[in-house]
Amino acid sequence: MIIKSVNLETVCGITSKLPDNTLPEVAFAGKSNVGKSSLINALMNRKSYARISAQPGKTQTINYYNINEELYYVDLPGYGFAKVTQSVKEKWGHMIENYLQTSKQLKMVFLLIDIRHKPSKNDVMMYDWILHNGYRPVIIATKLDKLKRSQVPKHLKEIRTELQMDKETPIFPFSALSKQGRDEIWDFIESMVLQ
Ligand code: GDP
């Protein structure tokens, strides 16, 4: 995908009404610190347009990035940060649930999993939640550069098993350092959303 323009158009907090967009939306979910901002920056060809978490778990907003006036990347708040209060966790749940249930333009949800670790309970819950709302979650396995190449297949298999993924659902291994995987993700978005 050629990135011609990027604009953080809407930031929604817990009380905001979600925008009535007419362009297709692609959403990104994952636990805080998984590398979501780094991925979104890479997919926008920007170094630091999406925030890179200095204080993980603090920002509870849904951010809409208008890409090329063609589609939106929707950055969902990261979950699973241990130090936030129960009420913040509940707010997070309501926001995501509301988004998944009401967005009319949502075409696809990417769920990010750190390739080094077995998916957490929250990851499994998020995966099931996405499915339950009628979307097919597509996995991006982040921080690929942190593993030796020989270890990668075993880790991808573990993610598939833990999430009980069907064979057709793709997993994209990705590194924000080397940008490995970026072209494949762009091609996938284009083929699924922009046709
Ligand atoms: P977020 O909380 O999910 O938005 O995660 P960030 O994008 O802020 O990344 C969390 C931390 O992981 C930061 O220190 C990043 O520099 C680091 N990080 C993110 N992606 C990668 C990656 O692909 N490789 C490596 N080595 N580090 C990464």
Provide structural commentary:
- There is one protein chain.
- The protein is of the alpha/beta class and 195 residues long.
- The chain has helices spanning 36-44, 86-102, 121-132, 152-163, 182-193; strands spanning 6-12, 25-30, 62-67, 71-75, 106-114, 137-142, 171-173.
- The chain has a seven-stranded mixed beta sheet with strand order 1-3-4-2-5-6-7, sandwiched between helices.
- Bound molecules: guanosine-5'-diphosphate.
Short description:
The protein has about 200 residues and is an alpha/beta fold. Helices cover about 30% and strands about 20% of the residues. The protein has a single domain, classed as P-loop containing nucleotide triphosphate hydrolases (Rossmann fold, 3-Layer(aba) Sandwich), CATH 3.40.50.
Task: List the SSEs and their pairings.
Elements: E1 6-12, E2 25-30, H1 36-44, E3 62-67, E4 71-75, H2 86-102, E5 106-114, H3 121-132, E6 137-142, H4 152-163, E7 171-173, H5 182-193
Parallel strand pairs: 2-4, 2-5, 5-6, 6-7
Antiparallel strand pairs: 1-3, 3-4
The structure holds guanosine-5'-diphosphate.
Guanosine-5'-diphosphate binds at residues 30, 32-38, 52-53, 56, 78, 142-143, 145-146, 175-177.
